[in-house]
Each structure stands twice: as C-alpha cells, then as structure tokens.
Amino acid sequence: MLTNRLFLMVHAVLLCVVVAAGAYRAQALTATRALPTLRDEPLTVEPTYDYNVVITDEQLDRVLTKLRPRFESEKTKINHVDHALRFWTLGADFGDDPAYFSGYGMRRLLLNHGEFAKVYGEDEPPLLLDDRPGVSVRTQQGNRTSSHVDHTMACLAEVGTPLDHPVVLPTRETTFRELVEQSLREFSINQIEYEWSALTYALFLPPERSWTTTEGQQMTFDLVAQRIMRERLPRGVCFGNHRLHTLVMFLRIDDQISILEPATREEIMEFLANATQLLVQHQHPEGFWNDGWPLQTPESPTPTEREGDRIAERILATGHALEWWSLAPEELHPPRHVLAAAGQWLVRTIDELSEQETLDYYTYLTHAGRALSLWRSRNPAQVVTAEILAAAAEQTATPAAVESPAAQSDASLAPSANNPPSER
Questions:
Q1: Residue 365 belongs to what H/E stretch?
Q2: What are the backbone angles phi and psi of residue 29, rounded to the nearest 5°?
Q3: What Cα–Cα distance (Å) separates residue 103 from each residue in 110, 176, 181, 366?
C-alpha cells in the first residue's frame, strides 16, 4: 500500500513538473514571438534629384494632367485606387470636379468599409477582413481586391498613414496598426510576394531590426534582402522591379536608421549595380525596356505583337526602372543619356495614348508618372495647379476644375463616366 502511494506521489510530482515546464515554455515562446514596438508614424524617403533632361516642366504638367485619377465608381478596381493614392499622395485635390478622386477620398475607400459599400454595394465581399487578432486585405480574388500581397498596406504607409489611423470594418472599428501587425505575424520568407510587406516593415520597424513570426521564424532585414537577391532577374512580379524598388528603399532607410549589416548593404549595392548594367546594355534605341529586360539585346524588343512586348509591358518595365533609379544612390545611376531616353520615350508614349488606353494601362502609368515626378523632386498634387486644370478643361470643352488648397479632410468619392483599366 505504501509503495502504491509513493508511486502515485512521484508521478503526481512529475506531472506537475511537466505541466509547469510546458507552461513556462509556452510563456517563453509567446514572449519571444511578441511583436516589436512599431513607430507611430512611418519613415519617409524623399526624392533628391532634379533632372530636367528626363522630363521638362512643361512635359510634366502635361503628363500629370493626363494621368489624374479619374474613375467610374462601381467599375473601378481597387488596385487602381491604391496605385493612384501612392502616385498622387494624400495631397491630391481636384477641387469641385466630381470626375476625380481626392487623396483623402481614396484612403477612405481603402480603410472604411462604409465608403467601400457605398461605391460597390453591400452585397460585394468586403476588402477588409476581420482576421482577429488583426485585419487583412483581400488579394487577387476579383476586381474589388488588391493586386499584390500587402500592396495596399504599403501604399498607405508610403503616403504617411499613421498606425492610429481609424479603420472601419463591416463589424467593428479598429486602427491601421492591426493591419500592419497582422502582416508581421503572418509573414513568411517563402510567401508568393514579400516585397511590399518588407517595404512596410522597413517604414515602421526601425530602430528595431528583427521580428518573429507565428511560425517561429526570426526575421531580419538582412535575411529578407538576401531572399530578394536570391532569384535571378527578371523573376518576380512586374518583371522583378518590385524587388529592386524594395532594395533601394532598404538602402535609403538604412541611411536614416541602421537596419542592415555593412556586408548586406554592400551586396545590395552590387546587386543593383548589376541590374543597372543590364538595363544600360539592353535599352532599346527608342529608350524603352520590356518584359525580358535582363535577357534581351538592344535589337530584340522590336515592335511585334508577341505577348510580353506590347505597349503595356514597355510602359511597365520602363516606368518601374525609372522609379527605383529616382530614389537610388547616385552611384547606381546609368549615364544621363540613358535616363533621358527612357524619360522622353515615356513622355511621347503617354502623349499618344487615347483616353481608353490611358484607363486600360492606368496602374502601369502610375509608376511611370510617379517616376517622372520624382526625377524632378515634385509632388504630383502640387504640380497640377488650378491654372493647368483650367487650361485642360478648356481644351476638352468641359468645366474647369479648381484645386482647393483648403480641402484637408476626406472628400466624397465621386464616379466618372469612364471604364476602368485592367492590370495583369
């Protein structure tokens, strides 16, 4: 009998030890996976160049006037809205003209389900999903969803959206913080797209340099940079250009607050210098690149109808290249004549686009328009002045749109009579 009692007591003690050890391990694991403290406001990366050989003042006025964010409400794809917001920023204000979104109006459409439902209807699946303990954005599930993983989140971060900015879900209200933190928790180094996620983290994490996912992966910006550089170009979304843009942003943020090891920074510089060399070697005589930009010869991208060498792909490849170069350290730039040829090809091409083509290619054109603005260190919303809008309205025989500097709150979302563009 005494032996049995002793046996039971020993097993009870062992069980308590196992339970306590398990609880301690779970608590330690939870502490390890706790998200780092984020910045309340995202870092900003400002343009530093003003090269009128890329585009002149008059040309920039003309291009930006043509690329105003004009949409037809219920037909407008969400990827047009987040692309346009990133391009035009929150300062976009086209006065009383009901045909165009304001910057604040675009942000409201992305972060307020009530505004989303007004435009697309209550029966449309919501853009914002309540994935407690956080929020996520529907991606690549139709016209009312984001086109890239975490692209909408990154666009909101790039235009300066703070973490305490309100987010209205179908069932509750929260803040932008939940969206960013949910992405951090779910991040995987092997997810299909990681460029826009990593860009957002670089804007909100520093001086923190690492975080742990729910899978237990210890992430650093060095590790993400290595992942970005591991694949050969042009693999990746938009012919690999998103990878190059994120690497440039890592460099620029590292200039402000150290997020990279010196050896990783050196590798990034070498990787981007090689990309520049390929672009210089493979630029078409007319000034553009296409989908095979790292592989083609200068003679190969001839005006054919083959898939991948349509005008849309040329706009996409050329606009993206000029965009990441516009923020890159000067030692990564190509010769000035390469920049000039690419910029002038974009200007000529945009000038020749019909209204329908402009709508069809709009998401690609936002990268081109943003690049051209950055090369002149201009904010598009400040370039398109009341005088320019009045002149454009007079040319098209429509009422002039007067920009209102006082409009600092979210504007209502108004439809236009145009069909929406599409994105690959």
A1: helix 362-374
A2: -65, -40
A3: 11, 17, 24, 14
d(CA 45, CA 250): 10
Amino acid letter for position 288: F
> What confidence tens digit (pLDDT) does each residue in 34-92 have?
889 999 999 999 999 999 999 999 999 999 999 999 877 667 888 899 999 999 999 99
Tens digits of residue pLDDT in 219-263: 999 999 999 998 776 665 666 678 999 999 999 999 999 999 999
Phi, psi (degrees; rounded to nearest 5) at 298: -55, -25
Task: Name the amino acid, one letter, at 184.
Answer: L
Q: Give the position of tokens 């150290």.
A: 258
Task: Return d(Cα 161, Cα 180) in angstroms, integer.
Answer: 11
Handedness of CA 211, 217, 222, 228 (dihedral sign): negative
Better pLDDT: 323 or 356: 323
* String of DSSP letters for 80-133: HHHHHHHHH-TT---TT-TTB--HHHHHHHHHBHHHHHHHH-TTSPPSEEEETT
Contact status, residue 366 vs residue 77, Cβ threshold 8 Å = no
- Residue 302: strand, helix, or coil: coil
- Rounded to 5 degrees, what angle do the CA atoms 93, 99, 101 make? 40
Q: Element (H or E) spanning 363, and its range?
A: helix 362-374
Separation between Cα atoms, residue 424 and residue 147, nearest integer Å: 9
Rounded Cα distance, 84 and 55, in Å: 20
Q: Which of 225, 260, 133 is nearest to 185 (CA)?
A: 133
Of 288, 422, 311, the residue nearest 362 (C-alpha): 422
What distance in Å separates the CA atoms of residue 89 and residue 82, rounded to the nearest whole number?
10
Rg (CA), the chain: 24
DSSP 312: H
